[in-house]
Amino acid sequence: MILTAEISMYPFTENYLEPIQWFIKRLDSYPNIVRVTNAMATQVQGDYQEVMSMLATEMHSAHEKFGKAVFVCKFIGRELDLSHSE
Predict the structure, then answer these.
(1) What is the pLDDT of residues 50-69, one digit of tens each?
(2) Helix, strand, coil % in the chain, rounded to nearest 5
(3) How confident is the model at residue 86 (pLDDT cuts 50, 70, 90)?
(4) What counts of helices (H) and strands (E) characterise the chain?
(5) Nearest alpha carbon to residue 27 among 73, 68, 67
(6) Using CA atoms, how far apart are residues 43 and 4, in angstroms rounded to an integer?
(7) d(Cα 22, Cα 62) in Å, to the nearest integer?
(8) Rounded to 10 degrees, what is the CA torsion of 71, 45, 61, 74?
(9) Fewer Cβ in 10 A, N or C end of the chain?
(10) What are the backbone dihedrals phi and psi of residue 20, each rounded to the nearest 5 degrees, phi first?
(11) Percent of the chain at pLDDT above 90?
(12) Which residue from 37, 57, 49 is spatially nearest to 2, judged by alpha carbons?
């Protein structure tokens, strides 16, 4: 099953861009996961188990490295066209 997820990271730090950029770069290290980022959020897509495992691993790593951060996620159990815009 393909999973499409949207995730936004809100670090509790004045220099909030550094943790966000670090997190997005880490997502790119997963070759089977498609990532698209815009000004508001990042969308990822791939095998359901791979996406969920990646998010668990990388959110854990972000909390360990940067401390407090809020992650807001939306999930849909299907493949969406991530290039679609209106």
Answers:
(1) 999 999 999 999 999 999 99
(2) 35, 35, 35
(3) low
(4) 2, 4
(5) 73
(6) 7
(7) 8
(8) 20
(9) C
(10) -65, -45
(11) 84
(12) 49
Scanning the structure block, which residue is given the tokens 């972000």?
A: 62
Strands (E), the chain: 2-11, 34-37, 42-47, 69-76
Residue 2: name the closest of 77, 83, 86 by CA.
77
How many other C-beta atoms are found inside a 10 Å radius of the C-beta of residue 47? 14
Q: Which two tokens stand for residue 50?
A: 């791979």
Calpha distance 6→30 (Å, rounded): 16
How far is it, in rounded angstroms, from Cα 73 to Cα 9? 9
The number of angstroms, rounded, from the C-alpha of 15 to the middle of its chain's C-alpha atoms is 19
Provide the 8-state DSSP code for 49: H
Taking only Cα atoms into account, the Rg of the chain, rounded to an integer number of angstroms, comes to 13
Q: What is the pTM of this model?
A: 0.88
- How far apart are alpha carbons 19 and 1 in whole angstroms? 30
